[in-house]
Design a protein that fits this description.
homodimer, alpha/beta, Rossmann fold, 5-stranded mixed beta sheet, 13 helices, 11 strands, elongated
């Protein structure tokens, strides 16, 4: 922005997909940057659905302090959603409705904060805006604990779940180590990552060397080899006295099924989801006879703002701020991505990248990040992962001992359109 | 101690049962207080087993900084054990062996850091010392996340797991709230507490009022009422949009069975332990059709020193220090207990209480702490619980983004006896 004049129109911000410990830091970056330029920010309630339903929130009703507090509040302050727009061909009315809502509220910039699906949606809207002769700039803003976005070096949200996982692995291992003589010998921690083992890999930062936990990491990138797994558990218990295993929820058996669904049945005979840890625990008990414990932190891992990585929180804020700068500078169909310029000391910057290179792509973990036996991470992986969990991001606690998380007023904007009949 | 002369003999410290985020703070309190009096502290490796096996550790080999670092390191620094000595009548040789080891190493004070079993053991050893004409002072030092020790107002270890549980409930609920429109509607957090619902109750501190999470707490003190539970889940989802449930692992069905064992079978047909959450989740899915997620933090909750309560960490240190003072003052068969002198502002002090009033007793949660429907906590419970999670207990983080936990040298003391043949 070289012009000092106030930009015309409003900016719409929406959160998409699974939320994270720092997605609201991105929202703070967006709102604070826009306010600084005199631009009004609306937020869509429950992500893109709020835009379709014309359920918009006027963030201008929030105090400066409330917006600043977003920087340390987990979850999605305006609501998010799991809702993927179909292709333009399959559901053109939805896209047209979005443009209609934008037009009614003079939305000239749309910032969509999500993963590769959301990047695709933002890209399509930018194209349709042109086709419908409506001037709209669409910016994708990166967010995902899965760390699977293309182009960007890492994804805001991942660093914090990585730190949570590494710290939890370390702490629980200290517990197991002190009890192993007479109690639990094998501890299994199940972490998120349906298709890629980035989070599981981060557990590897808890320790280094064969005897340090985690002793075994099970990645979705490697087919589960029961014999090799059991042999390594046994060898570890015999050598170290105990064994910490970190398993990705997406672990597959030789038939390509999720291990979590392959064995366990609940009381109703249904296969039980989200439980690879108990399956592995039963195996260890059955085949090796060791006492086990297992943990499955589920949402705790991605909402643990109390243990966020400073690197991650800073980057989350920075991509929000950059997204506004790009939008107001007239860029379209881009995403602010994180570029690593140095490993140690870690240095990074934000650059725009075309959404067309990000939409619908999935970044896999490089094969070079896994050790030959597939049960650990390499030095290359450590070099990549280590900076992402660095630094703490303190937050204010109340006298009641709880973090002081903000609940926004989320004041609705008056509707101008008829309800959307899909 | 009014005398300025150095006390004669050594002090033995042992950790017992499940470890906590702050049991090592107690160890720090013991060692620092003893060092200040010029008394040498040995620690038993793996709890009472180390005493039986004559596996003793000379804590004098550790630096001042290392002992200070214990104050912020979770787990059991010298190892703990699940091993209950039988009665004097059933296994007198074990007790005699302990006295033999004490005599060989001039152990004149024995500090046993554990729960009600350990209090019983310490009491029995004190009695046998008299019978065997060996001058030994036995002090029980309180520790248990279960908060079920008699006499003491609360137990070191509990406040921190309480804080972890309240904060995790709050954070995960922010996540669920933001996704509920299109995704998870019911989130179930399973917490420890086999026989008493203290930890589950602490989750109630996350929010207050019918619409604030947790909406439902399931206590082992109340038989699981499936119909009432499902009705409340449904009403909550319909009113609030989502529902957070916190369930104690010790939840019982009408037949008096653990719900966790009553339904689920693993791949081998064994009942699966430690999983009341998946059983409840299946029920919610089956009967109400809601999308669910569940979490089971297991050891993560009791080892999370990164989220410890300052109240708890301070009390853990204080009972260690007081135990040494009592021992050196010649007291025997007592435990330093926490006495609450005021609720708000919270004030507490440490006093000695006879082990005979603590050994083998279990403090239940008062019935007045549970709401009439049995799904929540009362104002009385809040008044009791609130101070225990107050204050944060910061710890040093390394440049690598991990807490700087200490690993002691744990230098072995040379043996003087033949191995113990049980």
């Amino acid at each position: 922005m070289t012009s000092a004049s106030k930009p015309q129109g409003r900016l719409l911000y929406a959160q998409s997909g699974g939320v994270t410990a720092v997605i609201n830091a991105t929202a703070a970056g967006v709102i604070e940057a826009a306010r600084a330029k005199g631009v009004q920010v609306y937020a869509a309630r429950n992500g893109i659905l709020g835009a379709l339903r014309e359920e918009l929130i006027d963030t201008g009703k929030e105090t400066k302090a409330a917006i600043a507090a977003l920087r340390h509040t987990p979850g999605g302050a305006f609501g998010s959603c799991r809702y993927k727009l179909k292709s333009l061909e399959a559901n053109r009315p939805e896209y047209e409705r979005l443009i209609e809502v934008f037009r009614a509220h003079d939305i000239r910039w749309f910032l969509y904060n999500g993963g590769n699906d959301s990047a695709d949606t933002a890209l399509k809207i930018s194209q349709l805006g042109k086709a419908m002769n409506y001037d709209i700039r669409c910016i994708g803003v990166p967010k995902t604990v899965d760390n699977d976005l293309a182009v960007t070096d890492c994804c805001p949200g991942f660093g914090s779940v990585a730190k949570y996982t590494a710290v939890s692995t370390l702490e629980a291992s200290l517990d197991v180590a002190s009890m192993a003589d007479t109690s639990t010998k094998v501890f299994i921690l199940e972490v998120m990552g349906r298709h890629a083992g980035w989070i599981a890999a981060a557990a590897g930062l808890a320790g280094e060397g064969a005897d340090a936990p985690p002793h075994i990491i099970l990645f979705p990138e490697r087919t589960f080899d029961e014999a090799a797994f059991l042999a390594k558990v046994k060898a570890t218990v015999e050598r170290v006295g105990w064994c910490t295993v970190v398993a990705s929820e997406g672990l597959l058996n030789a038939e390509g099924q999720f291990l979590a669904e392959a064995g366990t049945r609940d009381a109703f005979g249904h296969s039980q989801l989200g439980g690879v840890a108990p399956v592995l625990a039963s195996l260890v008990k059955e085949k090796l006879g060791y006492k086990y414990h297992w943990a499955l932190p589920d949402y705790l891992q991605r909402s643990a703002r109390h243990l966020a990585s400073k690197t991650d929180a800073d980057q989350a804020y920075a991509v929000g701020k950059a997204a506004v700068e790009y939008a107001l500078a007239g860029m379209n169909a881009v995403m602010p991505v994180i570029v690593r310029t140095n490993d140690a000391p870690y240095r990074w910057k934000i650059e725009p990248a075309p959404l067309s290179k990000i939409a619908n792509r999935e970044k896999k973990m490089p094969a070079s990040f896994l050790t030959r036996d597939g049960f650990g991470i390499t030095a290359a992986a450590r070099r990549y992962l280590a900076p992402l969990i660095q630094g703490e991001a303190p937050l204010p606690y109340g006298k009641n001992g709880l973090p002081q998380y903000i609940a926004l007023k989320n004041t609705a904007v008056a509707r101008k359109l008829e309800p959307f009949a899909r």
